[in-house]
Amino acid sequence: MIPITVVDVADAEPYVLEVLRSGVIAQGPMVKRFEDAFAEVAGVEHAVAVNSGTTALVASIEVLDLQPGDEVITSPFTFVATLNAILEAGASVRFADIRTEDFNIDPDAVAAAVGPRTKVLMPVHLYGQMADMTKLMPLAEQHGLAVVEDAAQAVGATLDGKAAGSYGLGCFSLYATKNITTAEGGVITTSDAALADRLRVLRNQGMRARYQYEMAGHNYRLTDLHAAVGIPQLEKLAQITEARQRNAEVLGKGLAGLPGLELPAVLPGRTHVWHQYTVRVTEDAPITREEFSAKLLEKGIGNGIYYPKVVFDYDCYRDNPKVIASDVPVATQVASQVLSLPVHPKLTETELETIVDGIREVLGA
């Protein structure tokens, strides 16, 4: 089976051993080293490491001091962590529809969704390509909204040379399947020194120094062991991204022109880091998306559906007064069509050929 993702952290061994031999395995100098490297990648002054990407989102909303009833606008087409984090932070969530060309939130839909209680705009840079921040940022400024980027899947992505995570508070995931992983972990990026300071205090039980409490905080710390796993990957992020881009190019060329298969596009001015290579199986395809997925698995080609429904379309959210559902026809349609194919850096030329040939055969090309 060609897997949808492969985790390779072999280069981390000397860093992990360094931590083990030091005796400092909780948050310490290795975390600081990781933060400094991550801040450079994001083009910001500060990076604050935490224990998950979800935590990064929660903490970012918490330091903005929202009041009960304040709302966050975000995408309906995302992993559930986006929604859960907003609710955990005590805010209400409203959704703006997406665009098919990049799977990201539509600035026109955001403009229509802004209301008197809107305080935060949370675009999701899905699959590794950034949302249209050139239009979203003026909207945020016009309405006085804070910007929290859910950049969980977009480490290293850029728009007109400006990196994901550099527009407001950037939130990244370091989960095992991400382009950069520490197994579990997250990072918040910002050039706002005051917010960075509050985030560092918040993640450490509200302590500035031992037993010097300044706020009700949490244990959101990342360990030096986790940071040690991530550092060598950050050092070779350019190579990781280039490999994903090469693989995406091969898939794009090999799958072009197949009936009922809409390929992902890289929009002008943007770099795509290809966390996922996500196609759409449309009504013109000879088989359904589910049949397509099953036939690929039969051929030993791993794939995944990210995500099968819009994020609020589950029973556990239907009666939640803080989840303000809306009509999102584009996201609803896209959720019924998407399927992600292997694009990870460990793919061989033979495996890429197998993927392309297998898909063409399944679709009768």
UniProtKB/TrEMBL annotation:
Keywords: Pyridoxal phosphate. InterPro entries: DegT/StrS_aminotransferase, PyrdxlP-dep_Trfase, PyrdxlP-dep_Trfase_major, PyrdxlP-dep_Trfase_small. SUPFAM superfamilies: PLP-dependent transferases. Its cofactor is pyridoxal 5'-phosphate. It comes from the Bacteria. Pfam families: DegT_DnrJ_EryC1 (PF01041). Belongs to the DegT/DnrJ/EryC1 family. PANTHER family: DTDP-4-AMINO-4,6-DIDEOXYGALACTOSE TRANSAMINASE, TRANSAMINASE. This is dTDP-4-amino-4,6-dideoxygalactose transaminase. It comes from Kibdelosporangium banguiense.
